């Protein structure tokens, strides 16, 4: 296993911070652009890819990550279909309930927690290898779900134009 990857961990932490920031930024405004829909998922994908590469380098099976991506895809597609979209005269408006906003925020924070678990696991005992694997799998689910949600919302926004 590769230990003490401090530069990689700094990049992952920056990616997680960007994910949380972009989620909060998206949730603040009623008007949304396509860029703003895909930005949090892209940052989360950066984090998930980094965690994926660390785990693949450690010899973990790739099929587990494919299954995690499939689960995230289903969750994101379903979640995106549940969100309403309308247009005012100038910009598209995504109608998200308060509870849905909190769930989306929790997913963004979940990506940050995955990075924290990876960093703690890398600097402590090798007994935390399973925790690091589950953190990487969880980050993949979160990132793919965010991107699938953004894709569905983008399709819905373009259909109403």
Low-confidence parts lasting 5 or more residues at pLDDT below 50?
A: none
Shape: elongated
Report on the biggest sheet. Answer: 2 strands, antiparallel
Helical segment count: 5
Residue-averaged pLDDT, rounded? 87
Distance between the ends? 51 Å
Q: What structural class do the secondary elements suggest? A: mainly alpha
In short:
The chain has 161 residues and is mainly alpha-helical. It is built from five helices and two strands.
Task: Describe the protein's architecture and organization.
This protein is mostly helical. It has one domain (6-159). Helices cover 78% and strands 5% of the residues. The chain contains 5 helices and 2 strands, in the order αααββαα. A hairpin with a 4-residue loop joins strand 1 and strand 2 (92-95). Helix 1 (6-28) runs antiparallel to helix 4 (98-123) and helix 3 runs parallel beside helix 5 (129-159). It is elongated. The termini are far apart. The model has no long low-confidence stretch (mean pLDDT 87).
């Amino acid at each position: 296993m590769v230990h003490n990857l401090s530069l990689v961990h700094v990049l992952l932490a920056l990616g997680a911070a960007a994910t949380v920031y972009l989620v909060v930024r998206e949730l603040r405004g009623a008007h949304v652009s396509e860029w703003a829909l895909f930005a949090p998922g892209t940052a989360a994908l950066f984090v998930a890819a980094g965690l994926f590469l660390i785990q693949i380098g450690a010899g973990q099976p790739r099929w587990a990550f494919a299954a995690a991506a499939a689960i995230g895809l289903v969750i994101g597609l379903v979640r995106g279909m549940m969100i309403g979209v309308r247009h005012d005269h100038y910009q598209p408006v995504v109608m998200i309930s308060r509870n849905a906003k909190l769930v989306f925020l929790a997913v963004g924070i979940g990506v940050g927690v995955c990075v924290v678990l990876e960093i703690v696991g890398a600097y402590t005992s090798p007994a935390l290898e399973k925790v690091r694997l589950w953190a990487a799998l969880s980050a993949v689910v979160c990132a793919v779900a965010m991107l699938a949600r953004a894709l569905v919302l983008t399709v819905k926004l373009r259909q109403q134009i």
